[in-house]
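Extended Data, panel c. Modelled sequence:
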Amino acid sequence: MSEFINGRKMTGAVLPGNSSVELKEYDVPVPGYGQVLVRTKSSTICGSDIRCIYREHLGKGPEAYQGVIAGHEPCGIIEETGDGLRRFKKGDRVIIYHISGCGVCHDCRMGYQISCKSPYRAAYGWQRNGGMAPYILADEKDLVALPDQLTYTDGAQVACGFGTVYEGLEKIGVSGDDAVLVVGLGPVGLAALMLARALGANRLIGVEGIPERAEVAEKLGLADYVFAPGDEALEKIREVTGGYGPERAVDCSANPAGRELAIRATREWGKIAMVGEGNTVTFLPSPDIIHGQKTIYGSWVTSLWRMEDLVERLVRWNVHPEKLVTNRFSLDKAGEAYSLMASGKCGKVAVCFDEELK
């Protein structure tokens, strides 16, 4: 357990449910053995925060919210260090991988703390204090180095959204041979388009029903085609892929009809990644999957090692996740930030500190 510095206070945002945000006062923590105190620079809002915490508390398993400071997409700079550090030091720019696993189970040893089932598992912003505050106490083992070429807001998105998408794309494999369909163009879907392009996809197709999100994709040139969902969407997708459908598809919609579209639009021998959480899907195994020799992959967040690979490649590709941010708020406006994100009428929303607010 960490101690607290007497006299140093900070404000943190808490999500009590019922689509509301509360600002509370906290002591600034002191890092213990193997820990660091990170001064938060940027903390972006994830769709799972809205689905599981902001609107209502699911309260079960890894999605059980414990009334802590919110925010599981934090990025900042190490301001203070505890004893026993092995790699990082004061002044290092870091991303915080948002699940702190036990470190010794099979999943943790593979780098997939997201799948840790130990009672010691605690996610930042869910079961332990997260990034919606000026400071965040983190374990060194949960840190990913942020290169100077990337902004703190770039790094905040890597902490969950971009890492999640990259894992899914790596599972299905995307190259210059592939047309890629992305269903659902919220921040995760927009990230899927951006990364699929970087991986070499030769045709990118998006499906989105919210005009503001479709507009972000078109404005940034992320997709070659953006279609509205509906009865004609399947035919339009096949039309722009020579009648065959795309080789790869990613569902980020968490919508039953969207998932069906992703499966049915994918061509024979194609691969589909399911990334969007919640809801259901119904499909016909024989015509939709078996006869087309298709493969569906489930993909949940990513591993530490793959997140480090992604950071390196973002620099190489000159890709900046920050471009997806349409709105920035200061911490005292966190209520407005979460409300906008919940409306869906935006790209990515960030709560920023210092120069990242500009």
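The two ends are 36 Å apart (CA to CA). This feature is highlighted in the accompanying rendering.
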